[in-house]
Design a protein that fits this description.
Four copies of one chain form a homotetramer. With 492 residues, chain A is of the alpha+beta class. Chain A is 48% helix and 14% strand. In chain A, the strands form four sheets. In chain A, strands 2-1-10-11-7-6 form a six-stranded mixed β-sheet, with no helix packed on it. The first copy, chain A, has a four-stranded mixed β-sheet with strand order 5-8-9-12. In chain A, β13 and β14 form a beta hairpin. Chains in contact: A-B, A-C, A-D, B-C, B-D, C-D. The interface between A and D is large, with 96 and 96 residues.
């Protein structure tokens, strides 16, 4: 089958990806301490797929070749596939306690696959065949692909073609015999740097005049003219501290966001999947967003599992695990987390086949799922902070706990003092273990991982209001009025 | 196939069921205005099953005979059956805006079926075969059966055998060659009077000394020694008013609760399904409660659909339908309602086969489902009251709107005055239609139907704390701690 | 000082007030079982004022005469008076567990007093002096006055003068030398029938063309041309049942709402307080609404106190009072209730003098107060229903508990059976006491008193959106932006 | 009057305070970039007191000397003083958007003042006179004093004397003629390093055997044997970045927490205010905690004001300010913030005099206040994150925006690209201004200031459960039961 995590990391080294951070070019970005945790996350999606015990969730059978492929590049063949997707994401969330970034590609594959079929049906184009070839290559090479949708957008009240800055939505600047040249950027790109490829889609409904903006295509991350500027996160530089370990909370894993810039990038025809058929932008957006709103009912639930476990440990280490209010808060966290999972599962099992044959999720329930994700993780985090206690944010640094500097009258070092006063429930933990759990919670509540668990839960796959609009459209209010009229005796 | 609604109602007339209300025996209880709406609800479960457009949801194939039977007496054969159960319940909720009562029997059938199998396996008893014969008869005669669990309970801190009042839990008072004699009562019995049969189960975990209380059996509603005392509901006597229509809000449908008393009732052996095997009481309770907590993710969602429709109509009739806050509240109601549905669907699709072969729901998710049902309907109702406006509770009676009594200087009647001042958005509704929708909302928010939509959502299938205990047990907190230890670097 | 409760009731008998209910004229409305509980509530405001232990809260010194008067007809002289108002309301709520109705008059007095002063200042009219004379008479005669604001409103999108039905807002139909003739109605009038007088105010901002609608005046409840149609409430007719007691939940007290119709009523000049000065309608509305939104931080808190007590008793009678989740729910109810009280107190202590000299509450905080009242009582009621248990809505009637009809094999009556199975914690209560508490909770959660505790909390003194608009206007968002600009380094 | 902010900072330089951070001693801690923002916050409490426009809130008249002193060292003389305290805190919160740390001293002064009075009354000690002398010196020298209560606590189930580690609660290790020697530590000490003095109090109820732990005293921050270990915060080292400005979000202000260690510190008798009178520990804790729970109804409200302003600006800069859902979210934030303020004001105006003559807040309402503070700031922050949009956490660094490194085909630098793509609503802001507001929100939501606005709101002045216990004790549940019994007809 596909690559191991290690092979994946090596494959990244071979690419000429251009990455900028803190105003400078980062040469060895693969080993950069700020970037590496996000690479490790994606590596997990490879390693788990190589592990037989997770084969059912992590792999699938290619519809092109019949070979076993990573589920992240699979086209959903039925509602079981949709459910397994959610379960795979929960698993990856549990193993990383982070955003593992690879699902945007999977969601883009399934959306582009079904949409190109319908574009071709209408226009006689051959996008669908092109895309199938591309996806077969993705599966064979076991690539990670960034599914990229969000443009910088500029003035929210204006259409793409009417923006003062014409580049503020990504667009075709030249149409050539052999392909197109594109310019613009995709913002908030999760997992863009550590992807082999980018699969670009338009970001919203478009009109007749926006034809140049109605474009979908794929290109490698190191395509000529493409570069990325890394977004900074809470506590990012803590990862640069010498021997950083405990203070990181989650040493190995993390997320990543970047601005991906297309500075006149040439895209050959065989990688172009939409090129001016503006009325299909909406379909592509709704399908991708639908899949991606489903995703949050898996990945964030997995992270939630780790948070609940950490909160339970914190209570134990603090010696408070038997208090009824602590138990009740853990139940509430579990309840909220499983409600999210229920929504992820429900929109999957209620999926339906597209014309192209792959399966789409239930759009109403997927939006309901994501809407809950914009709320419950915040409450889960609040409860975790409650259980953790104030020490989570007042604890001295790892360097203090390990310091040999003498401060006490009897020769005690800073380390001695810290260990003397911050020891927890000795039957359950060492002081360092207590620190580790509290730092993990700090990281997820207000450190680097809060970006993934909180803000991404809020805005990823569309901000809350976007889901409300979809719920309004999909909620069949007229049908419900009809039910009420009959019961109330207004209609028969 | 089975009976029509009309045939069902006629079949009730043939029974000698003993019903008491307001301190007296009710002879023609089938046509009693307070009781009839609950009978009409059950009748809907017959009529819909006869309607070809609902055949897929409302009917199933008997595993005993291969014939088509009402799904309410079906044993779930796979997760599709479990999902269809939820959808059938949503449909019935949409058609009645009430508790339609028949699902307690269905949930009891499935729980008793699988539990008796395991009792027999351990003890070599033949409860399972007995039960299969019984259920086959239920299917053939298309009976409605009250699945009865809740005893009056008395002192919550004492086991059944230790209660000062030995009858406070239903028990075996005599064991005979040909059967047993039971005494006691089942309280809060929804849909007991209009059932043909009662299927009794123990209400909680039991110990060695509670053997006489560990009993499950079936008997007809008019068994000798069995009688019922009707529980009174908010606004019950409004149904007795002459020509009551508009003021009822929901003229045709409603719920029903009663105390079912077993005054030394003889149960022949072939209808006894548990008789002293106390350690199986827990299994029976958990399985029945699990199914029933799933149910609420269907039935209350259907009622919710009608409420949302009614609130949307109320806004329209008030002329407020375009206000952004009104739209937003309707979205929120839809969001909450569909979250409940997602939980109902999720615990179904994650079901698994029992040893006996029928399917059980996912216990964790079913408890999460019900826990949400103890919250969201209250918020849905609050939002409906917000949208409806104060007129919902200050409006004069139907009799006023129709009164010919002259009150005005120019000869206006009370009816004229009411219609003059309470006219709504004339383009959308007549004044009576506006009244009808507001009375429907009154009925569901604080009238007779509030019993079913609010209090039953709270306490039916177990009070909130019961679900929290199950969530705690099923939440695998130790596994979650393990995940956190690995991420935090405490364990490998 | 003023009347006793009994004298108040007798004073009502002397009036020729015209009341219609269920399509007919009610002659002896004072003793009508549906109406009487609301009269009893107002009577409490008289009796408490006669009780020396409550003198500080219930009485005040007239600014006109220096005599002691009922605080309900007092003009607030400082922030202490404003706080005492809230405390008086909490007290009355505790004693009645109902809306005691008399505060609309008090709020109207204070709003009309200060507004007429400013109208006179601008126009040289003499409304203020007229009003002072009127209020002095109110104080002397110790009248209860209905402060009436809400018109039926018709099409929400149109101004009064532009409505198809010109009467849908109350208006001046004739201007005479000695006074005016008014036509129209005031809807949702709490405590209108049992008031001696009505003090009418316009219901919203008005423009140049709405001059005929910009009218404020007072008249007796039995003025020629004035009549009222009683609004029906949940469970209203339960009060008509013979010997009704336990089933009422709150036998003695209740609320009342009516449509008050002005069928060409003549108002002499000395009772006219606004007559066409349309630009002052807004001031009058905001001031009255402000006071009335403050009120809810007292009255509903008092009712909440009784609900919390009842829930605690229900737990005790059920034998569940030691469960940690029960204790926690009682704490939560207390917390929510005291938060409402805090808002009531805060908007009072932050009050300020008007030009006329009486005190106005802080408008922002009063709106915040009422906004919370549209939420927390619903959660308090939800928690009360949780604690009460399902018996609250499944319990047989009082008639059953007292019935001599024999039903059991050993001659047990219905009453025997009910008492046998519904006995609670015998050390704490009789069965009847348990019933009483559960019926009280039924009454407040979904019976007649739910109208006052829930729907009135939602819509009384303006629906939730009305408060949000005021919060937006009063929130000084520009000032807050300025603070943020300085901190963020955008401005110095 | 007192010092200016600048003088205060200079006064700190003169002290020999021992501070450790990252395992090392910090010599010039006054100018250390991580520590300095917290010093600047305290400096604001001096500068505002020197500004005549804030004199009414920021200053008061000494009861000892009649001179004008900073309100932070004032003894509350009436409820007006208590309200002004809350308003002063709101003001300081608005000016710093941080925890300004000085209120713990004020709260300790008032608690120790009244408690020592009652200790002396019982035991004939002279703690009260000692304390008055001390406080007079505090006022004259305009010192900032850390009121210190929380011990590390160790095993939560054991009393101080029964702990395995005897130092885990601070205690008297030696009693001498001229004073006492103390050992132990106070944890989570907000504003400890930048205080001139520490005023120590016991942390919980104590028994007969805990006499050595029942100790209250004052000492200078640089007392011999006293040292502090700085707690690390989210994003702390961002402050060390060269030229850090925009990325800090709040460049000038911040909070501070430390472990304060007493390594056998000698305290002369005149600074000892409790020494073994263990039964007064509870009074001291409840009074201090009561004041401090009141405080949060001021300080966090001020910070909330800045967050609301920043969210409104972010919406404007994003071009989304007219969307109805944005407006509604700003209203909700305002509503929640003012509810907190209402609680702060209400517990103040309902205060009462102690035996010693200063004023104590209403204990029930102060606990209700703090309980709301453990909830609403989290929701305010969630709504701010919603309004801000994802860019808040995906935006490149300040260094990128200012970088001259060329990356584009046409010579565009990283700075050019960032400014090209991240420009906001050009009519309202520059790109840098947009960054500044988003970074401010990042800082308060998940950066350094989240420690103060979120976690401190949760655990400062006692964790949520501590307030619930107090609400339970203060809620007079028996009185409420009595009210319900009367209404329900159980008692007369």
């Amino acid at each position: 089958m596909g690559m191991t995590g290690k092979e994946y990391i090596e494959s990244l080294r071979k690419m000429n990806t251009r990455v900028y951070m803190f105003g400078e070019k980062i040469d060895n970005w693969v080993d950069h301490p700020i970037i590496r945790p996000s690479i490790n996350c994606v590596a997990v999606t490879y390693d788990l797929a190589c592990d037989p015990q997770y084969a059912d969730l992590m792999t699938a059978t290619s519809i092109f070749t019949g070979k076993t492929v990573n589920r992240f590049s699979h086209l959903h063949q039925d509602t079981e596939d949709l459910k397994k997707k959610v379960k795979m994401q929960r698993l990856c969330g549990q193993k990383t306690a982070s955003c593992f970034q690879r699902c945007v590609g999977m969601d883009a594959f399934n959306a582009v696959f079904s949409t190109t079929y319908e574009v071709d049906e209408k226009y006689g184009t051959n996008y669908h065949e092109r895309f199938k070839k591309y996806l077969q290559e993705v599966q064979e090479k076991d690539w990670t692909v960034d599914g990229a949708m969000t443009d910088p957008k500029g003035d929210r009240g204006k259409a793409p073609h009417a923006q003062p800055n014409p580049d503020i939505f990504l667009r075709i600047v030249e149409r050539r015999e052999d392909g197109i040249v594109v310019r613009g950027a995709k913002a908030h790109q999760t997992g863009s740097i550590n992807s082999h490829e980018h699969l670009i889609m338009p970001t919203m409904a478009m009109g007749e005049n926006d034809k140049d903006y109605a474009v979908s295509f794929a290109c490698p991350s190191d395509a000529e003219g493409l570069f990325m500027i890394y977004g900074r996160q809470s506590c990012d530089t803590r990862k640069l501290e010498p021997n950083a370990d405990v203070d990181l909370g989650n040493k190995q894993f993390g997320g990543q966001e970047a601005l991906v810039v297309f500075d006149d990038v040439f895209i050959p025809n065989e990688r172009v999947f939409l090129c001016g058929e503006h009325e299909f932008a909406t379909m592509l957006v709704e399908r991708f967003a639908g899949y991606h709103r489903q995703s949050y009912g898996g990945c964030k639930v997995g992270v939630g599992d780790v948070i609940i476990g950490a909160a339970a440990l914190a209570a134990e280490y603090n010696g408070a695990q038997k208090a009824s209010h602590i138990k009740d808060k853990l139940i509430e966290m579990t309840h909220l987390n499983e409600t999210l999972y229920s929504c992820g599962i429900a929109c999957s099992t209620e999926g339906y086949p597209t014309k192209a044959g792959n399966y789409q999720i239930d759009l109403l329930l997927a939006n309901v799922c994501k809407q809950n994700v914009t709320r419950f993780p915040y409450e889960i985090v609040r409860l975790a902070e409650d259980i953790a206690g104030g020490l989570m944010v007042t604890m001295p640094s790892e360097a203090d706990f390990k310091s040999d500097t003498v401060v006490g009258k009897n020769g005690e070092t800073i380390g001695d003092i810290c260990n003397h006063y911050f020891a927890g429930n000795a039957e359950k933990c060492t002081t360092e273990e207590r620190m580790r759990i509290l730092r993990f919670l700090e990281n997820i509540c207000l450190g680097a991982s809060a970006v993934g668990y909180r803000t991404e839960s809020m805005h990823g796959a569309g901000s809350p209001q976007a889901q409300r609009i979809m719920i309004s459209r999909q909620g069949n209010i007229e049908g419900k009025k009809g039910l009420a009229k009959v019961i109330a005796g207004i209609e028969k």
